Amino acid sequence: MTVSLIHVQPATGTVAALTATGGVAVGGYVHHAWRGLGACTTQGLATHPWYPEGVRHALERGHTAQAALDQVTRPDGGAARRQCLVMDASGRAALHSGDDNIAVVAAELRPTVAAAGNMLADEQVVGKLLQTFLTLTCANPDEAWTQAAAPRYRNGYESHLLETLVESLEAALLAGGDKRGTRSAALRIESFDAAPIDLRVDWDEEPARALRALARRVRDPAFAAFLASLPTR
């Protein structure tokens, strides 16, 4: 299994990505985030290490998420084994889920935030991931969840994105997570106002708990001061 969430805030260029899986090194292979540009995840029965490069180049040329996704999946003879989620700078999402992926395969796409997964213990894992994120960040979570309205984010929500991503993952894993067991988790946040946050738990019996422990260390005053001292450009 791999389950992922990506979020793009068009107003500020902030981009966030979260991933968890039953294998190892999920942060090094699955999610990719580029501030002011967009994000993608490449997962499924077999990830594709070079999808992100193609997606990024397409987004840099001004292509939509769907066009960028088409450019990497169309020539790929193994696309039936892939699941790829892309979001562009405007917050538009596009998804490819190949037919060879192992069930349960699920996805929830909204403007500016989307989640997808495969080999899930239950299709509600993806829904719980997205719904928790909306609840923690939006002024209209119910309307955004039912797709009656685009998400309206609360003022200042970006300052808590780290904790929001961890809590969203915890909720998803409580809903079932990977039917093989979840062993690795990672997140990345990029913005124009702060240095990137890139946290990875590569093999742990409780990766969400380990990720939360890392998040607490990031918020430690000494490390927070170090991050604040780094250049943003």
TrEMBL record:
Pfam families: DUF1028
Classification via InterPro entries: DUF1028, Ntn_hydrolases_N
Highest rank taxon of the organism: Bacteria
The protein's name: DUF1028 domain-containing protein
Gene source species: Halomonas sulfidivorans
